[in-house]
Design a protein that fits this description.
Elements lengths: L11 E5 L3 H9 L6 E6 L3 E3 L4 H5 L9 E3 H4 L6 E5 L2 E5 L4 E4 L2 E4 L2 E4 L3 E3 L5 H6 L1 E2 L3 H20 L3 H8 E5 L3 H16 L1 H4 L9 E6 L10 H13 L3 E4 L3 E5 L2 E4 L4 E3 L2 E4 L3 E3 L16 E3 L11 E3 L4 E3 L13 H19 L14 E6 L2 E6 L2 E4 L1 H14 L3 H16 L15 H21 L1
Parallel strand pairs: 1-2, 1-9, 2-5, 9-21, 11-18, 12-13, 12-18, 13-14, 20-22
Antiparallel strand pairs: 3-4, 6-7, 7-8, 10-19, 15-16, 16-17, 23-24, 24-25
Helix pairs in contact: 1-10, 5-6
Length: 447
C-alpha cells in the first residue's frame, strides 16, 4: 500500500488529525506554496461539543459531521488520505501509517485525545465512552436497546439494571449527557413507551471531586448542580469508581449501583504515537512542546491541540485547557508561522486568548463565563446555541441543527430513535484484518 502522492519540489507538510486544530491549520495554509497532506482515520470532521446529542438520539450523526474532501474541493496542492498513524521516525523524516510510509518536511501532530480509563482495564473493557461520533452512535443503540429490553425482560432486577444509567465524570460532557437523558426520561418515555413506568429510569452522575464543572467557577458549578438535581439526576460527589462487575458499578466506599448502561466520560489522554520516546510525553500523555508548538528535541515536528502540552506558560503551568478554542488558536498561529518561515521571518510564540467556557444541561438551562461576565439560565443557554451553531461546518449542517433545536424546543417528538447495527461488507472486513496483521508484523520488526 502507498499514499500515492508524488513529491513535486514543494516543501511537504503532513498534518495528522483533522480535528479543530488540524482543520484550522490546513485552512490557514490555503494559497501557500506548501504541499499539504491531511491524514485522519475518518473521512470527515466531527463536532465533539454536540456528540452527546447524537448519543441521546436528539440529532443525526451527519448533522455534526462534515467530509474533509468537500471542505478542500478547490484546493491545489492539498491531499487527504484516510489512514491511522502507526509510528514516527524523525531521524528519517518518515511516518508509518496504516496505508504505507510517507516522507515529510514538516510534521504536525493534531490527533487529539482518547478516553482515559486511568489504567483500569476492566472498566475500559466494560464502559461505554462517548468521545467520537462512532461511540455516540453505539451508545445511542445501547440506550434504546436497553429500554426495549426492559419492557420484555423476565425479572425486576434485570429491568432495573437496564433502566439505571450511570455517567462517570462531572465535566461538561458528563453534565450535558446526564441532563439530556433526564429530559429524555421526562418527555420521550411517557409517549414512546407508555407501557413502561418512567419513574423506574434512574440517572446517576458520579464525580470524584467535590463539585461538577471543576474547570469553571464555583458559582457555575453550583448552578449546574441545582439544575440537574431539579431534573431528577442523582449526583454523587466525592465518589470514585473502582470497578464494574456483575452489572454493578463499584465505588471506593464499598457501595455499588446496578446498571447495564455504564457511560465513562471521566477524562482524556493524548492519542498515543508509536515509536516516540517516553521523554516527549508529559501529563495526560500529552506531547511536550515549546511556545511555538515545536516538539522538544525533534526537528521540524510540531504538535497542536489537545494532544500537546505547552510548557513554560506561567498562566497555564499544567498546560492549556483541552478545549476547541485552544486547538483553533494554535492551528491559526502555526499556519502563520509556517507562512513566515517561507519569507525567512522568525516565529511568533503562541498566546492563548481565553474566550470563556460554557455548558448546558437542558432547555433554558446553561452556564456561561466570558472574561468577567458570568451567566446562567436562559441567556446562557441562548449564547450556548449561538456559539455552537456558528462553529459547525457547512451551511446545510447549520440549517439542520438549527431546525432540530427549534423543533425540540416546542416538540420532543422526533423520528430519530431507531436502532441500527451497521454491518461491514466482507471486502472491508478482510481488508482490515490484513492491515491488522501487517501492523502486527511491523511491530515485531521494530522490536
Amino acid at each position: 500500500m502507498s499514499l500515492n502522492i508524488a513529491k513535486d519540489g514543494r516543501k511537504r507538510i503532513v498534518i495528522v488529525g483533522g480535528g479543530f486544530g488540524g482543520l484550522q491549520l490546513a485552512n490557514g495554509l490555503k494559497g501557500t506554496d506548501y504541499q499539504v497532506i491531511l491524514i485522519d482515520k475518518n473521512n470527515y470532521h466531527q463536532f465533539p461539543p454536540l456528540i452527546y446529542q447524537v448519543a441521546s438520539a436528539g440529532m443525526e450523526a451527519s448533522s455534526i459531521s462534515f467530509p474533509f474532501r468537500k471542505n478542500f474541493q478547490k484546493r491545489k496542492n492539498f491531499y487527504f488520505r484516510m489512514a491511522e498513524l502507526r509510528a514516527i521516525f524523525p531521524e528519517k523524516k518518515i511516518i508509518q501509517t496504516s496505508i504505507g510510509k510517507v516522507e515529510y518536511d514538516y510534521l504536525v501532530l493534531a490527533a487529539g485525545t482518547t478516553t482515559n480509563f486511568f489504567g483500569n482495564k476492566n472498566v475500559e473493557q466494560e464502559a461505554m465512552p462517548m468521545k467520537t461520533v462512532d461511540e455516540a452512535m453505539g451508545l445511542q443503540n445501547a440506550i434504546l436497546a436497553n429500554i426495549e429490553r426492559a419492557i420484555t425482560c423476565s425479572t425486576k432486577q434485570e429491568q432495573q439494571e437496564l433502566l439505571n444509567v450511570v455517567v462517570v465524570g462531572g465535566g461538561a460532557t458528563g453534565v450535558e449527557i446526564a441532563g439530556v437523558l433526564s429530559e429524555m426520561k421526562r418527555t420521550i418515555l411517557p409517549h414512546d413507551y407508555h407501557d413502561l413506568d418512567p419513574s423506574l429510569m434512574n440517572i446517576y452522575l458520579i464525580e470524584a471531586s467535590n463539585r461538577l464543572l471543576s474547570a469553571m467557577s464555583p458559582e457555575s458549578s453550583s448552578a449546574v448542580e441545582k439544575y440537574l438535581r431539579e431534573m431528577g439526576v442523582n449526583i454523587l460527589l466525592n465518589k470514585m469508581v473502582t470497578d464494574y462487575k456483575d452489572h454493578k458499578v463499584m465505588l471506593a466506599d464499598g457501595s455499588s449501583i446496578s446498571t447495564r448502561t455504564f457511560i465513562w466520560v471521566s477524562g482524556v489522554a493524548g492519542q498515543p504515537v508509536g515509536n516516540l520516546d517516553a521523554s516527549h510525553f508529559g501529563r495526560g500523555r500529552r506531547i511536550k512542546v515549546d511556545s511555538y508548538n515545536r516538539v522538544e528535541g525533534l526537528e521540524d515536528v510540531f504538535c497542536i491541540g489537545d494532544q500537546c502540552l505547552v510548557e513554560g506558560d506561567k498562566d497555564y503551568p499544567n498546560g492549556h485547557p483541552q478545549l476547541a478554542q485552544v486547538a483553533i488558536q494554535q492551528g491559526a498561529n502555526l499556519a502563520k508561522n509556517l507562512k513566515r518561515m517561507i519569507k525567512g521571518k522568525p516565529f511568533t510564540p503562541f498566546r492563548y486568548k481565553n474566550l470563556g467556557a460554557m455548558a448546558t444541561v437542558g432547555r433554558n438551562k446553561a452556564v456561561a463565563e466570558f472574561a468577567k461576565i458570568k451567566m446562567k439560565g436562559f441567556w446562557a443557554w441562548f449564547m450556548w446555541l449561538v456559539v455552537h451553531l456558528r462553529s459547525i461546518l457547512g451551511v446545510r449542517n447549520k440549517m439542520v441543527v438549527l431546525l432540530n433545536w427549534m423543533w425540540n424546543y416546542f416538540n420532543y417528538n422526533q423520528s430519530l430513535r431507531m436502532i441500527f447495527y451497521p454491518k461491514k461488507a466482507k471486502e472491508i472486513r478482510d481488508r482490515e484484518e490484513r492491515e491488522a496483521k501487517m501492523h502486527w508484523g511491523e511491530d515485531l520488526m521494530e522490536r
